[in-house]
Amino acid sequence: MRSLKKFGFVVTVLVAGWMFAATVTPTQAQTVTPDHLHAILAASAADPQPMGKFVGPGSCSASACHGSVTPRNTTKVLQNEYSTWVTEDSHARAYSSLTGSLGRQMSAILKIGPAEKARRCLVCHAISASEGHSTAALDVSEGVSCESCHGAASQWIGPHIQSTAKHADMVRLGLVDSKNLSIRSEKCLTCHLGAPGLHVDHELIAAGHPDLRFELDSYTQTEPPHWVEKAADPLFGMRAWGVGQAVQMRESMLRVARDAESGPWPEFSEMDCITCHHALTGPESWRQKEGYAGHRPGDAPYNVSRYVAFRKFAEEVDPATNHELQGETDKVAHLITTMSPDRAAVISSAKRAASLSDKLLGEVQNASYDRDRTQRLIKSIAGEGDLISRQGERAAEQATMTVDSLYIATAKAGSPSAETRAAIDALFMQVKNPSAYNAPQFAAQMKRVQLSVR
Ligand code: HEC
Ligand code: HEC
Ligand code: HEC
Ligand code: HEC
């Protein structure tokens, strides 16, 4: 239905793009001479953080630039990035979600006035330039647009279209280096997990906001990508998964520390949602049958989903550091689960866990990725189905996205298996209705995934 609804929107925006194309061509940008570029770079070197200004997606949408309707093969890039974003990418609709029925419901419950005017929402649903940071009045209705991910463009928009433009120079002028998977994940997670000043807490969730979950490779495929990955790396999907997991682990620990530092506590969005939000099934309850390992019956456990799958890979890459990370994560989880922990102790363990994750991130980035390693990892994660299933629905969901990403990577590298594909599809069904999540059934399906990998 979404595709039908967006049709009217697409037409208007594309027309706006064409009008732009007709009136503004990149000639202004072409007048940047190599000498001029040198001068700009010298000035930016003197100012280590050049304050670029936002110019808006209309500056990218000329058909000779990124607004072609179909992909081209005359330059290094596809040139239809704008069209892909505007027609297929939900980021282009991030603002209109604020004015839709769910946005309205949230505005009413939270008493924040129209959500599309609330800074609390716009920080993630649009380019939210602070005063003086935009060249023209920014149109927030364009949602999450090019510069939300690629960085404010005023300094690099001219230079970047030169045939001699070097990526590293553009990065010095403020282009976000999203070719670097760690920087890329960090950027996505500012909105998809949270960052200072950008929060989706349980108050927003209770008002109707979807809970935030993320896995770089799966989310990239869903976006969908408007670029062709340049790395000639057949296991690229696994690399993206690994780096994304390490960054996600680090950022989630920093978020715990921030939540413990200020604001309402315990912050329910740090905990396993479904432990509070499932239906009561009486004596047949699998929860009662399995017992409550690791916490007092009735306490809400910490949501460990961002560690369950990553931990198996971290173990392979650097067992000693992973051992320490496991220790700190256990402390965080144990403290939070007691509901009224010593906040200082949470902060100190969470920060230590974040720095251990950062160390692992460096190693994960330099690791080698091949088919055997990927197959082995799918098998070992699927082999922990029992343990993972008992860590809650969110953990099960993260493990599902993981085996899916890893399986797709191996299939692309030449090992497709109809049996594994079907087993993973059935795994997705297990997490489709979170409140009806059943750990023993999930574990049994994981076993089928494990057995299907040869
Ligand atoms: C500036 C904030 C921001 C950044 C940065 C960002 N996103 Fe998003 N993303 C959003 C918002 C807001 C939505 C919800 C859009 C809507 O209203 O439908 C979203 C939605 C999505 C969806 C659709 C999810 C679904 O349930 O269909 C995917 C996939 C996605 N983002 C992937 C990414 C990836 C990959 C990156 C990094 C390369 C990224 N996002 C960076 C804010 C952001
Ligand atoms: C930390 C960043 C962040 C903040 C702050 C934020 N959102 Fe979102 N919002 C997102 C992301 C990311 C998604 C997509 C989640 C997904 O599907 O994985 C989203 C999705 C939504 C959706 C569902 C869109 C759809 O159709 O699927 C609505 C509605 C929404 N947000 C409204 C709001 C409102 C209203 C506020 C302010 C009260 C707000 N958001 C604040 C990041 C944020
Ligand atoms: C949600 C984040 C996000 C948004 C929004 C976004 N991009 Fe991208 N874009 C990426 C990522 C990630 C890559 C892949 C890494 C890279 O090449 O920098 C990429 C790649 C590209 C590339 C290929 C670069 C190359 O050297 O191969 C172009 C061109 C591009 N984007 C243009 C745009 C334009 C134009 C818009 C707006 C219409 C846009 N992007 C919106 C995240 C985003
Ligand atoms: C410690 C228990 C606890 C945890 C953990 C928790 N919640 Fe809640 N949740 C509540 C309570 C209490 C309410 C308010 C119920 C009321 O007022 O009727 C609520 C309300 C909600 C509501 C609105 C109620 C409704 O009927 O739709 C949603 C949605 C929700 N929570 C989702 C989540 C999600 C998603 C998470 C995990 C990120 C989560 N909750 C974690 C206890 C919890």
In words, what does this structure look like?
This protein is mainly alpha-helical and 454 residues long. The chain folds into two domains: 2-176, no CATH class; 202-452, no CATH class. It is 57% helix and 0% strand. The chain has 24 helices and no strands. The chain has helices at residues 2-23, 27-30, 34-46, 81-88, 96-99, 101-110, 119-125, 146-150, 167-172, 181-192, 202-207, 216-222, 236-261, 273-276, 286-290, 305-308, 310-317, 319-337, 343-366, 371-383, 385-389, 393-412, 418-430, 439-452. The longest helix is centred in the middle third of the chain and has 26 residues, at 236-261. The protein is globular, with a radius of gyration of 23 Å.
Break the fold down into its secondary structure elements and pairings.
Elements: H1 2-23, H2 27-30, H3 34-46, H4 81-88, H5 96-99, H6 101-110, H7 119-125, H8 146-150, H9 167-172, H10 181-192, H11 202-207, H12 216-222, H13 236-261, H14 273-276, H15 286-290, H16 305-308, H17 310-317, H18 319-337, H19 343-366, H20 371-383, H21 385-389, H22 393-412, H23 418-430, H24 439-452
Helix pairs in contact: 1-4, 10-13, 13-19, 13-22, 17-18, 18-19, 20-22, 20-24, 22-23, 23-24
One heme C (HEC) is lined by residues 202, 205-206, 211, 268-269, 271, 273, 275-277, 300.
Question: What is the compact description of this entry?
Answer:
This protein is mostly helical and 454 residues long. The chain has helices at residues 2-23, 27-30, 34-46, 81-88, 96-99, 101-110, 119-125, 146-150, 167-172, 181-192, 202-207, 216-222, 236-261, 273-276, 286-290, 305-308, 310-317, 319-337, 343-366, 371-383, 385-389, 393-412, 418-430, 439-452.
